[in-house]
Amino acid sequence: MTRVHAQKTTGHLTMQTALSPSINAESCKLEAIRPATIPERFVRDMTERPTLATALQPPDTVPIIDFSRLVKGNKDEYKSEMLQLTRACEEWGFFQVINHGIDLSLLESIEKVARDFFVLPLEEKQKYPMLPGTVQGYGQAFVFSEDQKLDWCNMFALGLEPHFIRVPKLWPAKPLKFSETVEVYSGEVRKLCQHLLEYIAMTLNLRTDFFEEMFGVAVQAIRMNYYPPCARPDLVLGLSPHSDGSALTVLQQGKGGSVGLQILKDNKWMPIQPVPNAFVINIGDTLEVLTNGKYKSVEHRAVTHKEKDRLSIVTFYAPSYEMELGPIPELVDENNPCKYRTYNHGEYSKHYVTSKLQGKKTLEFAKVESKKPT
User: Per-residue pLDDT for the chain (374 aa), expressed as one digit of tens each?
Assistant: First the structure.
């Protein structure tokens, strides 16, 4: 298992790798902010590399939802915003939410403790290792072989809800108020997810409490990603292309960072320009299955920047592991036959975290095989 670590240097964080004995440490360790040569384990095959033209093209107009208009807008504002939400779910799978009601000082606090964690000495962060086959702790997730290409990213992830998924020894003692801030922030984001799913249910002509009742005690996790500057952003990926296994994912992008998030839209990689104080929301595999493909999860990735770093804080929200999931009966008919099988969500989650990030490949787990004509 290879883990990527961050250390504090003048002006920026940098990236190092803690390596298994069989990997050549000299070729894989990043000693400086902008090494002259990118270690081979980070250099992507030609077909995977982001071109500079792709990375620098003007951002596209991903839908923006004004949450306050859904909650307390007049009739016309509410109707307009619901149409925008429907379009976002059907055509994009991604949207940004403004005026979400979460105190902006809390967004600043979570960003501060995340950055403060990543600048801790390496030996301090190594107290919370992400073990092979898990996605909690500090390191790199989804690495399963010695020759697998690595993402130009440091990660720290924690399970939050229900409490039995928490690993207390992975909750850091430093920085001060880290755990307290994560608790408060996660509680607010959880409420936002619940409310968003109420409105998404209404776009599907379902009861507002449909998903809340179906999900049971929803599973929630948080992951903090730090992307150091990279001398050759055209050779590496910050995060490999993938769709999320969640129902909803909530992304907070650190202020002042590079534009790193890209989504696959019409077979082209499109950068998403952060809107100040907004959350980026995306549909996960679970919601694609439940809606029988009406609302699809979307492949996305992160790219790096030559001069700027990037911090992101990601919340994953999903049904209880005990739930049996499949297409909602109301969304299956002669014109929309069942596209996915019924499966246990815990089984799918285990499949997801033990598979490498590779586009939407993990969703094949749930697909019903098409019947070939005789």
Answer: 333 343 433 334 445 443 332 222 322 333 334 455 788 888 888 888 887 554 444 555 899 999 999 999 999 999 999 999 999 999 999 999 999 999 999 999 999 999 999 999 989 998 999 876 678 999 876 565 667 788 889 999 999 999 999 999 999 999 999 999 999 999 999 999 999 999 999 999 999 999 999 999 999 999 999 999 998 999 998 898 989 989 999 999 999 888 889 999 999 999 998 899 999 999 999 999 999 999 999 999 999 988 899 999 999 999 999 999 999 999 999 999 999 999 888 887 776 666 555 656 677 777 876 444 44
**Pairing between strand 300-302 and 239-242?**
antiparallel
User: Could you tell me which residues are beta bridge partners of residue 248?
Assistant: 283, 317
| CA dist., res. 206 & res. 196, Å (int) | 13
SS3 at position 52: helix
Return the domain boundaries, the chain.
67-366
Contacts of 229 (CB under 8 A, 6+ apart): 12, 33, 34, 304, 305, 306, 307, 308, 309
CA distance 314 to 325: 24
CA distance 368 to 341: 6
In the chain, the largest separation of any two C-alpha atoms, in whole Å, equals 67
Q: Measuring CA to CA, which residue among 144, 366, 110 is closest to residue 245?
A: 366
How far is the first Cα of the chain from the last one, in angstroms, to the nearest whole number?
47
Residue 158 Cα to chain centre, angstroms = 13
Does the predicted model carry a pTM greater than 0.85? yes
Which tokens is 323 given?
A: 């739930």
The dihedral built from the CA positions of residue 187, 190, 195 and 198, taken in this order, carries a sign that is negative
- Give me the amino acid identity at 352: Y
- Closest C-alpha to 253, from 181, 213, 317, 311: 311
CATH classification (class only), 67-366: mainly beta
Q: Work out the number of other CB atoms within 10 angstroms of the CB of residue 373.
A: 4
